[in-house]
Amino acid sequence: MQLINQSEVQRRIDALKDEDLYIHLEMTTGAYAAHLDSSKHPAATFITNAIIRYSHGSISGSGPYRVGLKMMQGWVYSEGLTHYEESETSRLILAGHDSQGKLIVSLQLSRKPFGRGVEE
Amino acid sequence: MERHILVVLPHPDDEAFGISGTLAMHIRNGAQVTYACLTLGEMGRNMGIPPFANRVTLPEIRRKELEASCRSIGIQDLRLLGFHDKTIEFEEQELLDERIDALLKELNPSLIFTFYPGYSVHPDHDACGAAVIRTVGRLPKEDRPPVHCMAFAKNLHQAIGEPHVINDVKDYLKQKMASIQAHRSQFQAAELLGSKKLKDKEIQERFGTERFWIYPF
Question: Does 3.30.70.1050 match the CATH number of domain B4-214?
Fold first, then answer.
């Protein structure tokens, strides 16, 4: 993963618009958040391989970044994104990592379903 | 006296702390006010204490709170523009600008209030202010009403100087506190006020002044 290059990510968002895509959208505070700091409220949520289609999408901010994708009947929104996978040219892989490198948030889009680590 | 004031803000409750006293003052002096609120604040995290709202009921609850807030300020015309909370910066600019331009044409306002783009902390605030400035900026110079902006970023004074308009709204604290109280899912007004009365010095100092920057086109 590399630090986000905003114009490159925007180009990739534009390249994926107006088609059915599989999305992985995730946010987590980490399962040990409350164990390490009792004032923290551990929470996590993800959705994998739901199908979405957006007509208009953009990345904004000055890092960490925000992404908004406008769909026919709603929105996909993600805040706190710091990294993208440069080598994944047909999919969009975005994530936000905290100062210790731990993943806090991820937003991924692909024309094919996301697998379980084994790519066909 | 202002003839017609147009207020454009993105969230229900954006009017409460920074501008409700000023609007009450203008309304007392005979102004008509149209408040265009871009979203219903449906992504807000405050659900009341203890929570009485949830993600599904929040939009309708906040719409009613906004209507109550407008009644307590005396705002005659509330427009809900139906955009989605947190998405203003991602929204198609032409669509935003079109809606604002239609209001300018319909109302021909003598004064506009919004957020100062770049100095209003929340991305929706900045994007709302930017849309208003873009749209008003397209009018011929002689047709442009003044735009008074709220701002509260940390680096504010170095960047845009001291506020140009400082309104003493101590005579309108009743309307202002009622506006804040109306947003009961968002603010714990009782805690803000505590056992203090509106005439208390602390309350007057904290809520009695509203500041605006005139946008330099």
Answer: no
